[in-house]
Amino acid sequence: MNYLLKNGMILTENGEMQKSDIRIKSGKIYEVGTHLENHGEKEISADSYLVTPGFLDLHIHLREPGGEHKETIDTGTLAAAKGGFTTVAPMPNTKPVPDTPEQMEWLHKRIKETAHVRVLPYASITMNQAGDELTDFAGLKRAGAFAFTDDGVGVQTASVMHEAMKRAAAQDMAIVAHCEDNSLIYGGAYHEGEFTKKHGISGIPSICESVQIARDVLLAESTNCHYHVCHISTKESVRVVREAKKAGIKVTAEVTPHHLLLCDEDIPSLDTNYKMNPPLRGKADQKALIEGLLDGTIDFIATDHAPHAAEEKAKGYASAPFGIVGLETAFPLLYTNFVEKGIFTLKQLVDWLTIKPAESFKLPYGTLKIGASADIILLDLQNEKTIDPAQFLSKGKNTPFTNWNCKGWPVATFVDGELKWSDGGAFE
Ligand SMILES: NC(=O)N[C@@H](CC(=O)O)C(=O)O
Ligand SMILES: [Zn+2]
Prior knowledge:
Layout: E1 3-11, E2 17-25, E3 28-33, E4 42-45, E5 50-53, E6 55-60, H1 73-82, E7 85-90, H2 101-114, E8 118-119, H3 137-142, E9 148-149, H4 158-170, E10 175-177, H5 194-199, H6 207-223, E11 227-229, H7 235-246, E12 251-255, H8 257-261, H9 283-294, E13 300-301, H10 310-313, H11 330-339, H12 346-353, H13 355-360, E14 376-380, E15 385-386, E16 405-406, E17 409-415, E18 418-422
Parallel strand pairs: 1-4, 6-7, 7-8, 9-10, 10-11, 11-12, 12-13
Antiparallel strand pairs: 1-2, 2-3, 5-14, 14-17, 15-16, 17-18
Helix pairs in contact: 4-6, 6-7, 7-9
N-carbamoyl-L-aspartate binds near residues 93, 151, 178 and 277.
């Protein structure tokens, strides 16, 4: 079906709002302008909405195969559509791990059958993410891998990472890294700092992340590989990435909404909805992440949507799994707490969720340019609602943001010109 979106607000290059119509034809953005005449399209009044490119989330966990009780490609991508995300990249810490071309082909088949938005799956760097034997990078690329990562665990050995970067560079593919040096961690569920001191428990030190990033940017320099840092969380890590960029190293970095919104001082108790990896760091780290985003050291925002079953999260702080969900609350939380408070501009926030991740990975999405895939969302910046996990389409209800009041809720999501989700209201 072709659509004519009438009178929506779009953001211009310089961040101003402009009333515009958008004609969607054959899955593409065909025309953007004012007073466009209807040529037989289904007309949708976008009058009271902000219209932006669909968001990209290049760090999520879909749990399929092997963890279908936590999430599936079906439920996770429906949650993505509800959150305004039209392209997502799921991590390979599934059972089995997509570490062979055959497994990658199977994954693409499942995506084709069940996904509601565009899915770009990662392959692992090492077989079974065990950190030893490298996967078949060329074969995995041919089978449709988006990039390589062992997310969930850091690559512990420098020589393995070095060889991985050489091979990734030869394939013009990125190495995407969960940075964590296990030799510097002695258990722990929360950041080693004020919170763990108060509770007399061991913590996860900042140094385990920044040390590995420092190692890896030097490996990236020596191999000319595109190296991407997942969920950056400490002030030292931000400094290392800033210096690496200054030195001309091909490094990019992402930050999650929760690391921007919270620090360890905000954790009320040994609550597992505040347990994620990397952990919520100190106040100075949170400040450095915001500054890093604003000065371009950090390239974009990704949710690290990590759904877990309620029984698993109820196991107590020491044994509950790390991770919180993020797809359905990211934009409203960031809009309400940063844009409405004047810390980010609306244009900055939208760019960090659209064109910035797209450009970092040379993807043709995240834009309303003529000829682009019609990945478009409508956002309601006025209506205020309270976050209620019972309303999530994700199977995961594990969030620390229950009862937060937010504006900026998506109301409709188009992927390749098809309406994949709407809140009902204006579109029934
Ligand atoms: N980010 C998280 O807290 N959890 C991730 C894996 C991980 O990165 O540890 C998960 O898969 O649940
Ligand atoms: Zn991770």
